[in-house]
Amino acid sequence: MTLEVSMDEARASRSMAETQGATPPTWRGRSRRRLLADVVGGPRQNLDKLRQLAALGAAFFRPALVRARLERLRDLGHVDAMPTIPQLLVAGRDQMMVSAAEETRIFYRSQGIPWVFHNLRRFVSGPATMLDPVGLFAPRDAIAHHVLQTFHRHAVYDLVLLRAHEGGVEAMALQAQQILDGTHPHQRALTSLMEDGSCHARLPRDIAAFAADPHAAPRPIPPGLVDEPDLMIGMDQFKDIGGFARYASRLDVGVAGAVGAWLAVAFDETLGGLLGVKLGPRCVARAACDAEIVARHAAASPSECAG
Predict the structure, then answer these.
(1) pLDDT of 248-266, one tens digit each?
(2) 155-182 as b/e: b if 16+ CB within 10 A
């Protein structure tokens, strides 16, 4: 059985990939068995996965570590707001489940990539790359692997995150070059996951440009990339870590609210999905977004979303 989605679905949303200059993934048309085998890995790869997962899990119980990473980014001039851990977690829910997931669904349809199977492969390849809703909890190599395994319009968010780790950008540059040279320890999995056939070739140039000017503005969201104004607002707000931190700092939420937010996510992604019931918000909180971003995309359009 080969990996395909309906041609009608691909045509319906083809413009997102075309607008962003994405090319078809190189692994399209291969059997699901081979694609799953690509991401399983051997002893070296699975030891790396366990190390990354352990480091990620430890960070969730070390708020001082996360705070130190955020303070480092503030000192480097990347963020000007210092949200609390509960604010970070709820903002991460909005970024991951409300904004990025919906954008990615549309992009996958435009590339002919099945949502469930591909995300299963991403999880098997690197669980830690998918379990951090913020990026500040993840270890350095999990961030690097995330950049190397999935399409980014502009990886500036993750490259800034890597500046919170000593030598992070340099390690990212090395791993991006290893992918091109065919020598990366996770070569088989990462090349089998990338959803844009041209992304790996662009990455070394993007990383070099970032290293030369870490404070360069992220690339703007292409106008009309999607039809939903609130999704455009979310993509624009979260295109860099500074925007994410500002959004998080405006949320009125404590520990109980953060726990409740992620319990709602668990319900929505399991039983709620089967029942067609959704407890969480369907779009970002406009009141927590930068006013100019709301004005740019939907100032005159009232939000129909809850939350």
Answers:
(1) 999 999 999 999 999 999 9
(2) bbbbbbbbbbbeebbebbbebbebbeee
